[in-house]
Amino acid sequence: MRISDVLAALRIEFPAVTTSKLRFLEEQGLVDPVRTPAGYRQYSPADVERLRFVLAQQRDRYMPLRVIGERLAALDAGEEEESPVRARLATRDGVAPAADRLTAERLAQEAGVAVELITELVTQGVLRPGPRGVFDPWAREVVAVAASLADHGIDPRHLRTFRAAADRQADLVEQVVAPWRGQRSVSSRARAGTLAAEVGELCARMHTALVRSAVHDLAP
């Protein structure tokens, strides 16, 4: 298969994948297509499944490429079996789409909460709708968690510190990827996207670990 054939096969599930992304994964040693005498890449069906595995691990688990490489090595050696991944639809950014635009009303309906909760989260700056009042897909989880916290007496105004912490962590991620984003090559931009996902997930894990550590001794 030529690289164009591979893109056509993968874009059904990963619409955001690009030629530069595939070349970057090759540079990282995660796939090794053969080369023709003229230097063109040729992929086997096994190579395509390998790429599908890598992209799914990045999308669904935010797994660093180093860890994905270790998992691939274990799979190659027969030391690990791949668990089935639930199929899902995707958009250009790789996120499962809603049946229509994700408005405040739809968010409230999906979460089973009053639309007033969405309004209050926006007022407190916890949620930030787009220019047309449409929310990004992550807003679903924010609302679900906010509703659960509200059951414990934690109101949206208390969640402003979470928003502020997330913004500071995003600034750290931006510092890491800035050198790559500043380069013109498509390979560098692909690397920036990969680094942003990996470092962002590490920041989230650090935040979770610190909160768990802080509340560990509160129970009798």
Automatic annotation (TrEMBL):
CDD domains assigned to the protein according to its UniProt record, in alphabetical order: HTH_MerR-like
Pfam families hit by this protein: MerR_1
Protein name: MerR family transcriptional regulator
Key word DNA-binding present: yes
Keyword Zinc among UniProt keywords: no
Keywords: DNA-binding
All copies of domain HTH merR-type, residue ranges: 17-74
Record-linked InterPro entries: DNA-bd_dom_put_sf (IPR009061), MerR-type_HTH_dom (IPR000551), MerR_fam (IPR047057)
Top-level taxon of origin: Bacteria
